[in-house]
Amino acid sequence: MSVLAHDISTDESEHTSIPNSVLGKAFSILSAFDDEHDTLRLVDLSQRSGVPKPSVYRLAQELVALGLLERVDNGYRIGFSVFALSQRVGTASLLRTVGRPVLVDLVAMTRGTAHLAVLEGTGTYYLEKLGGTRSVHSLSKVGGRLPLTCTASGKLLLAMSPHHDDLLDAVVAERPQQLTAHSQLDHASLRRELDVIREHELATEREEALIGFKSFAVPIYDSGHAVIAALSLTVPVSHSGDEPLVRTLRMASAGITRQHTKLAMRGDCQQRTPALTLYR
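The structure corresponding to this sequence follows.
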């Protein structure tokens, strides 16, 4: 996968169409916030959401009352209720609960940056991130979204999708962002690479997302052996011993798959997951 990023989901072009419904306007207001704009004034909310200022003011008061926004001295910021609601997303919540202890072990053993990601439309969405001494702290984030074509996680999710050919066509048609000069955007080359990824159940990238770093990603499965997520590890390109690293990564993904399958079959999403270890 990779770490990286510039969260392409927050492009202001997404706010050019003003929604008609109250719910749509409220969603546009909440979507106006991003990493660089965690606090916004009323006028900023209006400009970034495309919602007229009077409507923003009225809806902002309701969102504050509901805990979805928080009023601060110089404007508004996302409220705690948004975080609380996000923790109730079924599959994502269970994956994070099961995956986090494994990521802790993985980072301790490798000192790299570990990510848990899922496919969202034509992008890679990051559910969890943990970093060690080799971590790239400033680039990736939980809830961030990156192109499928230039991260190891994205390429793995694209390759393992049951509709990979159609999905690749859709991704290429969107002209995905090129994160570095090494990012692969050629349709034919990508298709060949995806064939290799499916064969080995392993995706890699080298400086396609961030200069100086390389990443490896392996699949996480559900009880029906369908790929539901990608587990990735990012280390500096100078790191040696890729094969042991990949073996450790596969052990970690197998642990997440086993525990996720166990809890999902029991429907026990709310149960506290015991710590998993890579040493089993």
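The first helix runs from residue 22 to 31.
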